[in-house]
Amino acid sequence: MTDQITRRVFLRRAAASGSILTVPGLLAACGGGKSSPGTTGDTTSHQLAKTLHFSNWTLYIDNKPGGRHPSLEQFQKKYGVHVDYREDINDNPTFFSKIEPDLQRGQPTGRDIIVMTDNSRYPSLLIQKGWVEKLDKSAIPNMKNLIPQQRHPNWDPNRDYSLPWQSGFTGIGWNEKLTDPVTSMGDLLGNKKLKGKVGLLTEFADTLALVMAYNGDDPSHVTDQTFNRAIDTIQKAVDSGQIRQFYGNDYAGALSSGDLVATMAWSGDIVQLQADNSHLKWQLPDTGGDIWTDNMLIPKGGNVYTASVYMNFVYEPKIAAEIEDYVNYVCPVQGAKEVLVKEDPSIANNPLIFPTKKMLDNVHTIDPKALNNQKYQTTWQNLTSA
Amino acid sequence: MTSVAAEAGRTRPNALSRAWAFVLRHVLTVYSLLFFVYLMLPIAVVIAFSFNHPTGRFNYTWRGFTWDNWLHWNAVPGIQSAITLSLEIALFASIVATALGTLIALALVRYGFRGRGTTNLIIFLPLSTPEIVLGASLATLFLHSASYGLSIPFGFWTILIAHIMFCISFAVVTVKARLIGFDRHLEEAAMDLGANEWTTFIKVTLPLIAPAILAALLLCFAISVDDFVVTYFNAGNQVTFPIFVWGAARVATPPQINVIGTAIFGIAVTLMLINVFIQNRRSKQA
Amino acid sequence: MGFGFLHRHRGSTAYLLLAPGMLFLVVFFLVPLGFLAYQSLESGSIDFGYAFTWAWDNYSSAITGYGTQFKRSFAYAGIATAIALLVSYPVAYWIAFRGGRWKNLLLLCIVAPFFVTYLIRTLAWQTILSDDGLIVRTLTDMHILSPGGRLLATGTAVVAGITYNFLPFMALPLYVSLEQIDQTLIEAAEDLYASKWTAFFRVTFPLSLPGVVAGTLLTFIPAAGDFINAQLLGSTTNHMIGNVINSKYNELIDYPAAAAMSFILMAIILALVLIYARAVGSEKLTG
Known about the structure:
The complex is a heterotrimer of chains A (386), B (286) and C (287). With 386 residues, chain A is of the alpha/beta class.
């Protein structure tokens, strides 16, 4: 299937390349080189597109050897829609900057669903700028399965534009073969035995929330004073050589290879990484961790109906359970736990996937105003890349 | 051969300096061999780990030998389309860049014209501009293109344009080097025999500079297939092989990356070995 | 394209030959630099858009805010270039004068590693230099590295990576210039001067200068703008100006700042190239 598509595109380009030196030929070819998803922004259409273009983070869906995704295959079987599933999101800013030029120019991005994190500024920025489509809620009756605490985020109060994909915790991961348990930020930032073997996250909100909580400040209400205090704490750890590097997704490799002994880490990653290194442990720091949610959004020009039908599909508890069984993040779908109790009790009873009240009481969310503060962003960037 | 002759023909034989020369020669040889070990070290790692059987996402620790990665080289989603795109781009870019570059080289070597200095400068500048500046400036052009009524979306064509752009100068330099050391008498002889300029070009010039054109093609192909920085700025949604590696390496390093890396290496080295072999035979015959 | 009918108009033939390629370079190299220049004087933000305001302070704040990274880039690139020159000169010499019939094969050995994708090569160094790897263990055993010391995520690793990755750009021009030296000149010099070393420094080395100039430039220029090595082998405290430009452009969408830094980088490189060319006295740079 994909082979054929590739070949067709190839031939079309080959034909077009004959005329590359003439400007009109070039322009015509440019128009044709882009794959545009279905109908453009036609919210009233209730016709399914042939293909759903879905951009997600890597290793964030059920996965079988050979790159197969059973849940996507079931979707195709049920609705006849092929899912063009791309794992091309590595971090929020880079992905946003990749689609921004298209959105800015009012062109389709070639995607029907994208997944962005609510503790970055981008979901709210996308809504503000009018760069996302409204969900077709009539096609998503399963939206009733969304867990209550996720129904009214302040940046999209009625879930008009977004639906959670997974949530996760930011805490501390460590290698128990190389260190005693590291369960406090004080230990992570100050323990001399860990010097040069500690990672922090480049994601502004993650690192800031954990450090502010450690400083005794409230991450959900950031002031210049508390922000600067957090920056000072981190800068001191950097200057003392404690911090090896600021990481995105890439802390995983360093942690599993032993280059990192302890690092700030995302909950589900550690479960997956135990296949590489069985000595990895994870815990929320004693002063509290951070909770975030990755949200499905339909970028402007995406096929609203098809995307909505897919969202409805993954909000069926059975499908959600299937995905959960692999990704090990926090599931936003009610009823999935009940399915898993029968099929895979170890997952159903894992507090990282279905968290206990105690855990939820020990997590913070970052002040959304801080996310949009240009001055903070610049300070942060200078700290992480100086 | 020549150095042995030089050694024998020395007029002032001096035992000390001879001993010194002996040591020096061998030190140099040993050093050079160590140098090649250093050059090949990471390559050996890449090749070895293409046969690794990692237990999880990362291919950093040796876990056991397997052929699986080679048999299922495209089992990682996205890797096949990435390598296909890279090859397509490299093929088109090297052909177009070499054609354009050869014409420029011909003009530079064969013709006197006004503006030669400027031309040389424009050829030289891309070579002395860091890739990140080339990438950023071209991306800026494409970003701004919308405000001038030509909306060029990032993708196949922007990558191709970028690759042709940075390949042209390399093609010019390669072909020019050959043209400069080229005996014009052959062409003059052909013209004297009544051939017109076009026939002379096709029958005499082209065959003589063909090796240089081929070298330029291969060089451009290699540079294009390997390029990351400029492509990263101008690729939009498209994923070439280096971009695939960049994205993948953050969360997992499937051994298939090593398989492709090894395969490209193997093919390139084989082609070059054949070339060396042919050249050696030719020089023997000559 | 026909050449025959142009026989009597040689001047225009040259321009016809030049036209397609030069047009391409003008449109896709020079014009983009113009756009970049324009963008470097814009101000604004991603939320409200950017507008042209003659914002010269983009340049001054780039220098005041990221002076460290600029200095670090040129320092790393300079050290890497010097090491590459020292390391590869003897090998180029060896191939040129002792290679015999193996010359082509040896040259192939120099070029071959660079057909493995740049990023894969650098990732391989990551494996080799890792804290648990053979090299770190050996150096620790030899007490060259202090216990718990590391190579990965240090400036040393970044410089080593840059040196390795740009080595053929140094070795090949060196070889070409050494190979062109007339053997009899060296023999004469060795007869004339007492020691081989004097002969080398008085004759061989000066004759190989064009190769040294080309090699150092071809290494230094890409090295100064590199960000891959610093990203994969370095730590936060080893970031170069390339990392900053990349993150400004591809993460923060702060195009004006990225554009201003690109221009400063390019200007410094061109200035250094000119000073260097003048100092060495080589006018073959553009030839």
